[in-house]
Amino acid sequence: MRILIIGGGPVTQELLKAFESERELKRNEVIVVEVDAEKAEEISKAFDVIVIKGDARDISLYESQIASLTPLSEFDAVLALTDREEVNVFALTIARHYGSAVRLARVKSVRVGEVVSKLELGVPIIVPTIISGFIKTYLQTLLQPRLVGEVDEYKIYCLTTSGTDKAVNKRIDELQLPEDVKVLFVFDGTRLYVPSKDEVIKEGYLLYILAKTSDINVISEIFKG
């Protein structure tokens, strides 16, 4: 894939670290635009990416510096991840004009996010909303599992583990789960991933559990006790 990232701040650097840990940087062409010279140099030294020092508010950046490497229309994804909403929205507007396939922007305001969606500029990643959503889910599922969705005859439950839970500090394969019960995903506060059977469940994990015939009481007994 060809990926253009606007902004070289903490979000971008965490994303690059995640790509690097899974060897994605070598399989993809990634260009990062950063206005700060010192930060641009740090990223260039730390990661296998192309770094352009430039101001994302300058239209010539897209028409000359970036286009000389890869035309905007050929990028599979444009990610606007600076800490300034107006810069991110501007970058998405330019990317949409040139026909970039996937466009994501980091925004702080729900209203700005709604405008981005309404104008079809791309996908708004509304940071406060995402964080508050996770916190709400943690609180709602701390005492007992919560049904969050259904797929045909299967149900998806969510629960947060606490220090007194029966499943805490045990491997998934030690829980002797019924045949119809599977731990689909684990969110450990830093990442969402598919666990192996050897995964040790820790306090504070957010678990997404798939079940066919086992009801919420069975799920609660298995994990909460």
Unreliably modeled segments: none
Architecture per CATH nomenclature, i.e. the level-2 architecture of the largest domain: 3-Layer(aba) Sandwich
How many discrete domains? 2
Tell me the name of the CATH homologous superfamily of the largest domain.
Answer: NAD(P)-binding Rossmann-like Domain
End-to-end separation in angstroms reads 46 Å
Our estimate of the beta-strand percent is: 15-25%
Major β-sheet profile: 6 strands, parallel
**What is the fold-level CATH name, i.e. the topology of the largest domain?**
Rossmann fold
Helix content: 25-40%
Assigned CATH class of the largest domain: Alpha Beta
- In round numbers, the mean pLDDT is 93
Oligomer: single chain
Plain-language structure description:
With 225 residues, the chain is of the alpha/beta class. It folds into 2 domains: 2-127, Rossmann fold, CATH 3.40.50; 134-223, Alpha-Beta Plaits. Helix content is 35%, strand content 25%. The strands form 2 sheets. The protein has a 6-stranded parallel β-sheet with strand order 3-2-1-4-5-6, sandwiched between helices. The protein has a 5-stranded antiparallel β-sheet with strand order 7-8-11-9-10. Strand 9 (182-187) and strand 10 form a beta hairpin. The longest helix has 14 residues, at 85-98. The radius of gyration is 21 Å and the shape is elongated. The mean pLDDT is 93.
